[in-house]
């Protein structure tokens, strides 16, 4: 992968992301366009998304760092601040952007958003309504979908059969959320 032709700042940020990834986050630039990144974020511990593995895409526009990166979820997620197209309602990706922020900061902020859904500033109004009317039920549904993402991620990841013996669904498995896992996955994937 040649970083020649990119601004020095992007080169430094890319090298740091690859050499020293943030906990629970991987970001790899595309070989054919080093402004595009494939991102994987693990749901934060203690959040409804803790058992999830989420794929995102990140793009650095020509104006970066004067303009924020473009980030969106590729993995379906039930979150009031993320819509069905994967667009994210996060202030630093809009009016609170500063050239002092970096790709790493953006990805950590997206991961933190998973810990703190904000139904008062929604992008997905139906999900926000569910969170406001019954937060516990909405979080349970988010948790179930997040667990389905882990299942999908592991099925489509290389080496799946090597990891089956140590594949925990965290504490949610013991709590009975996965009694009808395949039914839940099929319903969710059909939406």
Automatic annotation (TrEMBL):
<feature type="domain" description="UBC core">
    <location>
        <begin position="5"/>
        <end position="151"/>
    </location>
</feature>
<comment type="similarity">
    <text>Belongs to the ubiquitin-conjugating enzyme family.</text>
</comment>
<dbReference type="Pfam" id="PF00179">
    <property type="entry name" value="UQ_con"/>
</dbReference>
<keyword id="KW-0833">Ubl conjugation pathway</keyword>
<protein>
    <recommendedName>
        <fullName>E2 ubiquitin-conjugating enzyme</fullName>
        <ecNumber>2.3.2.23</ecNumber>
    </recommendedName>
</protein>
<keyword id="KW-0808">Transferase</keyword>
<dbReference type="GO" id="GO:0005524">
    <property type="term" value="F:ATP binding"/>
</dbReference>
<dbReference type="InterPro" id="IPR000608">
    <property type="entry name" value="UBC"/>
</dbReference>
<dbReference type="InterPro" id="IPR023313">
    <property type="entry name" value="UBQ-conjugating_AS"/>
</dbReference>
<dbReference type="InterPro" id="IPR016135">
    <property type="entry name" value="UBQ-conjugating_enzyme/RWD"/>
</dbReference>
<dbReference type="GO" id="GO:0061631">
    <property type="term" value="F:ubiquitin conjugating enzyme activity"/>
</dbReference>
<keyword id="KW-0547">Nucleotide-binding</keyword>
<keyword id="KW-0067">ATP-binding</keyword>
<feature type="active site" description="Glycyl thioester intermediate">
    <location>
        <position position="89"/>
    </location>
</feature>
């Amino acid at each position: 992968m040649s970083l020649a032709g990119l601004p020095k700042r992007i080169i430094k940020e890319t090298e740091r992301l690859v050499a020293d990834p943030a906990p629970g986050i991987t970001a790899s630039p595309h070989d054919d366009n080093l402004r595009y990144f494939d991102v994987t974020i693990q749901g934060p511990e203690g959040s409804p998304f803790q058992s999830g593995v989420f794929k995102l895409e990140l793009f650095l526009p020509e104006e970066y760092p004067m303009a924020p990166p473009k980030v969106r979820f590729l993995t379906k997620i039930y979150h009031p601040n993320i819509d069905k197209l994967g667009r994210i309602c996060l202030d630093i990706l809009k009016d609170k952007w500063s050239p002092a922020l970096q790709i790493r900061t953006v990805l950590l902020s997206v991961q933190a958003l998973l810990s703190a859904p904000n139904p008062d500033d929604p992008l997905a109004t139906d999900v926000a309504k569910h969170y406001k009317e019954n937060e516990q039920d909405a979080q349970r549904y988010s948790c179930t979908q997040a667990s389905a993402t882990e299942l999908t991620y592991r099925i489509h990841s290389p080496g799946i059969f090597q990891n089956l013996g140590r594949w925990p669904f965290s504490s949610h498995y013991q709590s009975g959320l996965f009694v009808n896992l395949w039914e839940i996955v099929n319903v969710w994937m059909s939406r």
